[in-house]
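Friendly challenge for the regulars: who can give me the structure tokens for this chain first? No prize, just bragging rights.
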Amino acid sequence: MKIDFVSDIACPWCAVGLNALERALTNLGDGFAIELEFQPFELNPDMPAAGADLLQYLAAKYGLGEAQVRANQATLHERGAAVGFAFGARGRVWNTFDAHRLLHWARVEAGAEAERRLAHALFAAYHGQGRNPGARELLLELVDALGLDHARAAQVLEGDAFAAEVRAAERQWQDAGIHSVPALFVDGRHLIQGAQKPEVFEQVLRRLAAQA
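First reply, four minutes later:
Bragging rights claimed.
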């Protein structure tokens, strides 16, 4: 079974959804063969490198006041804690395009497990520590922490390697009707939308496997 996990590092529900999905996969057991691939989606493709104030951004994009933002964050943090993701303080929204390029590089040149570990590290840095996933120093720090090729990662970030591939993939998923994330495509035809709870992911995946 192939799962395309369409997500953005800037999306806090994607962090929750990934942890929930992995808990579901653990419950399914080793006999349940899954290929997981991360697919790019940018919530803020025009975000400048300097980023934007979180509260101002949410007010402008969604019309949310500070009280509503705080209430939403409380719910989000509760859901995150339930699946082992610890949210921290974050005051800004950042551009994530280079993070997506690096994820693509990790999969192509280091394999699916490297991509998965890098995705977790990026979510933790952004949503757990409030750090900028577009900052080259952070990206290379994560590469080093994961034991990936520093020199090659720096080369990727200094140029435009994998930019065309990431843009093409983003268009593909938008053309497929994806306008919010996380979104999971199972075997290219079954859509699971949103950060479901582990038991929901498990139930749906078992049903799809039985239908295959």
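The chain has nine helices and six strands. The longest helix spans residues 112-129. Your move, everyone else.
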